[in-house]
Write a structure and sequence with these properties.
- The chain is α/β, with parallel strands linked by helices.
- The chain folds into two domains: 58 residues, Translation factors (Elongation Factor Tu (Ef-tu), domain 3, Beta Barrel), CATH 2.40.30; 116 residues, Rossmann fold.
- 20% of the residues lie in helices and 26% in strands.
- It is built from five helices and 14 strands.
- The chain has a seven-stranded mixed sheet, sandwiched between helices. A three-stranded antiparallel sheet has the order 2-1-5, with no helix packed on it. A two-stranded antiparallel ribbon has the order 3-4.
- A hairpin with a 4-residue loop joins β3 and β4.
- It starts with a strand and ends in a 6-residue tail after the last strand.
């Protein structure tokens, strides 16, 4: 489901840990997943060299995804490499909202994307599902600043917020949602080891006591990566 991820294992035995990569697209008819990622190290560089029919070990799908709440005006907020999982969510929300008619979904999905510069990957692919706005840190395209700057510039409102991106962005969105009284779901980005919640390498502070560790934390890979914003501390 939108918001989940898979763990990809490098073939090089010197790199033991898998790389978690979010789902950008889900095609159930073809049995295919689409993964969009940034080459950031040796593991992802290896993946970028794969060709059609090459084999790779994959564990997943893992984690909890975004709950699809049809009929509510939604803001989808993606920043940097947090943008890819929002694309499949946009498609899922549109399908749930349409209920046989595209008119029923009109205006319910708004997407705001944050980039460093004018290299705005995937931006055009969001257009079929609703209006798209964007911000760039250097001001080269769209609103100069971040996703919240774009929200304020275009006077956007919503009943529910879905977001994925770097921690400073999510922290600001959590505060914004609390101020406006909007339900907010956020997907955390974190380095992981096992990916199934056993090693406790990827944890975040939570307002509740975790039933597994008996402390105030949540396992991002197992309990998340998607959480209600008011249940975790950033």
């Amino acid at each position: 489901m939108p918001g989940q991820f898979v763990s990809l294992y490098p073939k090089d035995g010197s790199r033991l840990l898998p790389r978690p990569i979010s789902l950008c697209g889900i095609d159930r008819d073809k049995g295919e997943l689409r993964l969009v990622y940034r080459v950031a190290g040796a593991g992802t560089k290896e993946f970028s060299g794969l060709r059609s029919k090459d084999a790779i070990d994959v564990l997943g799908p893992l984690g909890n995804g975004f709950p699809v709440e049809p009929g509510k005006k939604a803001l989808l907020m993606g920043g940097g490499i947090g943008i890819p999982p929002m694309l499949e969510l946009a498609k899922a929300l549109h399908k749930a909202n349409s209920a046989g008619s595209d008119k029923a979904a009109a205006g319910l999905i708004q997407t705001v994307l944050g980039y460093r510069d004018s290299g705005m990957f995937l931006r055009e692919e969001f257009a079929p599902w609703g209006p798209v706005y964007w911000a760039t840190e250097d001001g080269s395209a769209g609103t100069k600043g971040n996703v919240l700057d774009a929200v304020r510039e275009h006077k956007l409102d919503a009943e529910v917020i879905y977001a994925c991106g770097p921690a400073p962005m999510l922290r600001a969105l959590k505060a914004y949602a609390a101020e406006k009284g909007i339900r907010c779901w956020i997907s955390l980005e974190e380095k992981m080891a096992c990916g199934v919640g056993a090693c406790l390498a990827c944890v975040c502070k939570s307002t509740e006591i975790d039933g597994h560790s008996q402390v105030h934390n949540k396992r991002i890979c197992k309990d998340g990566p998607v959480f209600p914003a008011d249940e975790i501390e950033l």
